[in-house]
Amino acid sequence: MKDLLERIGMTKEKQGATALALAMTVIVLALVIIMGWVLSMPFFINPIPSLPAIKFNAALCALLLGMALGMMANRVRTMNAERIDVGMPLIVMLVILLMLPSMLAMMFNTQTGFEQFFLQLLAEKGATTAAGRVPFAAAATFVMTALFFFLMFLRPGTEKYAKPFGALLAIAGIAAIIGYAVNMPALHYQLNETDYGMSIYTAIMFVMIGTGLALLQKPGPEFVAQ
């Protein structure tokens, strides 16, 4: 893949710039969804009413992961091996705090006070039974992606693992999109009648975040600390 990118003129700087553009796209899309929730604009939450809507807390997590990708992409784009934004631990912590209650609720088939908070804060607009509960597959993917970003924060140079992880993340999103297109619930990770699987918006943003991760390069000796 590296040779292919080089043959088509995708230098490390260009790959970083492309990853940054994908990060900005995720951030804008997540903000639009959040605005849709806050202003009660269903079209921005779920343009196809027959499909599950993205949850407010899932949109928040997508926004945070878009910011994390932007931080790492800017590090590659500026050729700065030492540049790591100190906001990364906060982003990871917030994603875990937002997603862990949904995962525990699914695992133990119960409701949590955190879910009730979102239920009271925002009117239910999605197809899933629990208004504040993010589907298990999406919640677990958010957490794993956040932890991977944290690994890159702790150990500069682990971008060498970004390509396989990003590819898997993008494939997971593509599988969910195909699942909706061909009406195969298993592909968009529908577990049961109360877990309708990954929303189409979540799948699209996972594809963009995964592609952005796959474009990140391991810092080499040509990187200069600034």
Can you offer a commentary on this structure?
This protein is mainly α and 226 residues long. It has one domain. It has nine helices and no strands. Helix 2 (12-38) runs antiparallel to helix 4 (56-77), helix 2 runs antiparallel to helix 9 (200-215) and helix 4 runs parallel beside helix 9 (200-215). It is globular and about 45 Å long. The protein starts with a helix and ends in an 11-residue tail after the last helix. The model is unreliable at 3-8, 123-131 and 220-226 (pLDDT under 50).
The averaged pLDDT comes out at 76
- Helical content band: 55-70%
In DSSP terms (H or I, runs of 4 or more residues), the helix count works out at: 9
> How many E-type strands?
0
N-C termini distance: 29 Å
Beta-strand fraction estimate: under 5%
- Tell me the major beta sheet: none
Shape: globular
Give a brief rundown of this model.
64% of the residues lie in helices and 0% in strands. With 226 residues, it is mainly alpha-helical.
